Amino acid sequence: MKDIAKNIFTRFEHQSDACFVVACDCHDGDHSHEIYVSRDDSLITVTIGTTTTSDLRMSRFKKIWNLLVNGHIEVTSELIMTDEVAKNYAMALLDSVDRLNK
């Protein structure tokens, strides 16, 4: 991955899409966010996601129950950023959208 700015790394860039990773300052890889920016004929979409490997706050039974009742399990994640990293996050997102609009 190419380092764009502090805690922001390019995973890939193509003509119609780009993906970069924003790392959490706590240095836990499970807290990083992946930002995917893509362009088709008339629309630019931005998808921000995170992957959690485990959530020990919820019992296995509660997870199964929520899945059966709600059809999904909600897991929250926080990304801790300094002001510098937050500005870099915004800059990387703006740069990707501007590049894809050309």
Q: What's a quick, concise take on this entry?
A:
The protein is an alpha+beta fold.
Commentary on this structure:
- There is one protein chain.
- By secondary structure, this protein is an alpha+beta fold.
- It has one domain (2-101).
- It has two helices and five strands.
- The chain has helices spanning 60-70, 83-101; strands spanning 2-5, 8-13, 17-22, 33-39, 44-49.
- It has a five-stranded antiparallel β-sheet with strand order 1-2-3-4-5, with helices on one face.
- The radius of gyration is 16 Å and the shape is flat.
- The relative contact order is 0.23.
Summarize the topology.
Blueprint: E1 2-5, E2 8-13, E3 17-22, E4 33-39, E5 44-49, H1 60-70, H2 83-101
- The number of helices is 2
Give the mean pLDDT. Answer: 79
Helix-residue proportion: 25-40%
Q: Total domains, how many?
A: 1
Strand content: 25-35%
Assign the structural class, choosing from mainly alpha, mainly beta, alpha/beta, alpha+beta, or little secondary structure: alpha+beta
Q: In angstroms, what separates the terminal alpha carbons?
A: 24 Å
What radius of gyration results from the CA coordinates? 16 Å
**What is the helix/strand order?**
EEEEEHH
**What is the molecular shape?**
flat
Instruction: Pick out the low-confidence regions.
Output: none
Summarize the main sheet.
5 strands, antiparallel
Q: Going across the major beta sheet, what is the strand order?
A: 1-2-3-4-5
Number-wise, the strands total 5
